Amino acid sequence: MVQIPIAIVGAGGMGGRHLRALGALYESGMANVKLEAVCDTREENAIFLADFAEELLGSRPQVFTSMEDMRNQRPDIEAVDITTDSGSHHLVAEMAFDLGYHVLCEKPLSLTVRGCNRVIDAWKKSGKVLSVAEQERRDPICRLNKAVIDSGAIGKPYSFLLGSATGGDTIIILPWRHYKNIGGIFVDAGVHVVDQMMYYLGDIEEVFAVSKVWEPKRYKGDRIGVHDFYDRWAKEVPDEIDADAEDMVISTLKFKSGAVGQWTSFFAAHGEPINYSMIYGSKGSMVPARQRRGDPLTLTIDGVGAVSGDEVLELVPDFHLDELTARLFGSDRLGSYSLPLKDPDRFLVALEYYELGQCIADGTKPEVDAYIGRKDLAVCNAALESSVLGRPVTVEEIENEQTAQYEASINSHWGI
Ligand SMILES: NC(=O)c1ccc[n+]([C@@H]2O[C@H](COP(=O)([O-])OP(=O)(O)OC[C@H]3O[C@@H](n4cnc5c(N)ncnc54)[C@H](O)[C@@H]3O)[C@@H](O)[C@H]2O)c1
Prior knowledge:
Blueprint: E1 4-9, H1 13-28, E2 33-39, H2 43-57, E3 62-64, H3 67-73, E4 79-82, H4 89-98, E5 102-106, H5 113-126, E6 130-133, H6 140-151, E7 157-167, H7 180-183, H8 185-201, E8 204-212, E9 217-219, E10 240-242, E11 248-255, E12 260-269, E13 274-281, E14 284-287, E15 298-301, E16 305-308, H9 310-313, H10 323-329, H11 342-362, H12 370-389, E17 393-394, H13 395-399, H14 405-414
Parallel strand pairs: 1-2, 1-4, 2-3, 4-5, 5-6, 7-12
Antiparallel strand pairs: 7-13, 8-11, 8-17, 9-10, 11-12, 13-14, 14-15, 15-16
The structure holds nicotinamide-adenine-dinucleotide.
The site of nicotinamide-adenine-dinucleotide (NAD) has 25 residues, from helix 1.
C-alpha cells in the first residue's frame, strides 16, 4: 500500500494522542500514511513527540519548529495533521495550504466563522484535501446509534435531551480552555456534541441560550486531563488562573426536521456530576451510546419494551462497519465492545488518518469536511451569541456573519 508522507504540527496532548493513533493504524496492516516529521513552535515538545514516535513506530520523524523550514527541507511531505491549540487553527491551516499541504485539522476548524472562512478560502485556492478531525461519530456504537435512528425504530425524532455537569472551579486540562480567545471549554467540547446531534438528527437551525462565566478564578486540580496524555505539562499549570470563557451554556435547539433539543453544558458544577442523553421519537426512546465507552445503546419501543446490546443489531440487518473499523474493533457488526478507553481513543483517530490517506490517493471526500466543521462551530457560537443578544439566533445568521457580537472580540484579538 502506498504510504503518504505526513507531519504532525502541534506536539502537545492531542499530538500525542494522534501519534498513538498512528501506532494503531500501523498495527492494523492498513497504514496508508507515514509519519516523517513533527513540528512545534516549542522545540522541546517536538523533540518529546519525536522520541515517543521512535519508541512507538520504530522510526524517528524529523523535528521542525516552523512549517516553512519543514517545507524547504522535506518537500516530500504531502500532508499535515494540525493539532495546535484551537485559537491558532486558522493561521496554521491557512499557512499549510499556502505551502501546498493537504490538511487534517483538529476541531474546531477555527473559533469564529471568519476564521473558518479564511481556512476555507485558502483550501479552495489550493485544490488540496481538508478534513476536520471530528472522530466521535466514527465510534462503531455511534455508527449504530445513527443506523437505528435512520431505521425508524423509535419513529420520527421529537426531541433530544442531553447534558453534562462537572468541573467545579478546577482548571480543565490546560489553562487555554478557559480563555475565550484561545478556545473556551464550551466550544472545545461543544463542537463534538453538536457534531453528534446533527449526525443523528440533521442540521440545527436555531438556538436560544443563556451562558455564564460562573468561575472567573480557576485552580489547579489534583491531575490534569484524562489518563497520562497531559502529565508532561502538569508542572506548567499555574495554581490559579483568571478565566473569561463561558463555563455554563443552557440551550434550546430547533432542528430543521422540526425536532427540538435541550442541551446543558455545565463546566462549573460543584458536587455530584451528571451526564445524560435521550432521544424521544414517535414510537419510542433511545439512550444513544457514548463514544469510546463501548456501552450498548438502549431502546424502549412502544409495544415491544426494552431492546439493548446485540438485540439492537436485529433492527438493522444491513448495518456493517467499514473494513478498518471492523479490523480495529474486531467485528463489522457490534452491539457493544469492551476495551480500555485508550484503545478506542486511538482507533477513532486512526480512522481519520486512514480516510485522509484515501482522500489524497483517490479523491474521496472526507466525511467531516470544512462546511460541517464550520457548522459545528456556528451552532456553538449561535448559543453564545443568543445569550449576548437575549434572543433566539439562527445558525444561518452566524454562518453569514449577520450578527457576530460574541465573535467580535475573538476576531479582533487575532486581527481578522
Ligand atoms: N478531537 C478530540 O477529541 C480532541 C481532544 C483534545 C484536544 N483536541 C484539539 O486538539 C487541539 C490541541 O489540543 P491540545 O490539548 O493538544 O493542546 P496543547 O496545548 O496540549 O498542545 C498544543 C501544541 O501546539 C503547539 N503550537 C501552538 N501553536 C503552534 C504553531 N503555530 N505551530 C506549531 N505548533 C504550535 C504548542 O506549542 C503545543 O505543543 C485543540 O484544537 C483541541 O481542541 C481535540
